[in-house]
Amino acid sequence: MVNHCPMTDATTIRLDVRGEVARMTFDRPEVLNAGNARFAAALGDVVSAIAARNDVRVVVVTGAGRAFQTGVDLNALAAGELTLHDLVRWEDAMTAMERMDKLVVAGINGHCIGGGLQLALVCDYRLAVEDALLSLPAVKECLIPSMALYRLPRLIGLARAKELILLGEPITAREGERIGLVNRAVPAADFSKALDETVERFLALPPVSVTASKRLSTRAFDLDFETFRQEMNSALAGCFVSDEHQQAMANIRSKKRSRP
To answer: Shortest CA distance to 96 belongs to which of 156, 45, 20?
Structure first.
């Protein structure tokens, strides 16, 4: 059963929920899914709707047509129809995505430019078609790429991050895989199957340990060692007393008994 959730602007982002999986699809293919003010507002609404659903464990983020997302709609920006307030709202939504307990998979089905790459950076896993272009061209528009300035160096190292940020030149997803920006790049013909398999792998994991691991690893660069260790110990204790851990141990005992 697919649950179609009402949206602020159904023509900018679609949200479909099937069981434990929510699919967020950027839906402005006529402009390669570039975002205007309505997109920024809808992004916040979609993320809030997903975060409120306890039945959703994995979120897939992808784009309609031949692009994932190509950042701000430059025509709207030039016309004054996309303001600083809208860009702050966009970043607020991305921060909320990053902090959700659900696992978020970026299905980069095509070009992933500017704000599109910023959206991919807040996801937990990035799967891309190998010839998709990735770039942060904000400097060329006399802007800065929002909190990608914070996130990208932590992901791929300062030198490579500065190269992408300061030059604004694109790289392919295959190169992105080589430098750690993309988890996996695949041929276009294999993309849909690989995306489904990735989702299934995440769904097969115990929710308690996955949630704790995501929360802690997301904050790995923000906490001092002793504070992080205290929070880790608390999360580990929660895992030990969980039903999922007890079931995992029971499965191990069962397999041991069944051996000849």
So the answer is: 45
- At 9 the pLDDT is 46
Residues 29-48, mean pLDDT to the nearest whole number = 96
Residue 3 has pLDDT above 60, yes or no: no
Q: To which H or E segment does residue 95 belong? A: helix 84-99
Q: Which helix (H) or strand (E) holds 53?
A: none
Q: What does the pLDDT average to over 60-77?
A: 96
Q: Residues for the chain: how many in total?
A: 260
Distance CA 134, CA 151 (A): 15
Predicted TM-score of the model (pTM): 0.90
Q: How far apart are CA 37 and CA 106, in angstroms?
A: 22
- The one-letter amino acid code at 97 reads M
Residue ranges per domain, the chain? 2-203, 207-258
Q: Is the pLDDT of residue 76 over 80?
A: yes
CATH architecture of 2-203: Alpha-Beta Complex (3.90)
Q: Which residue has the tokens 């999922």?
A: 244
The residue-averaged pLDDT of 216-230 equals: 93
d(Cα 104, Cα 97) in Å, to the nearest integer? 8
In terms of Cα–Cα distance, which of 90, 26, 16 is closest to 53?
A: 16
Contact (Cβ atoms closer than 8 angstroms) between residue 64 and residue 25:
yes
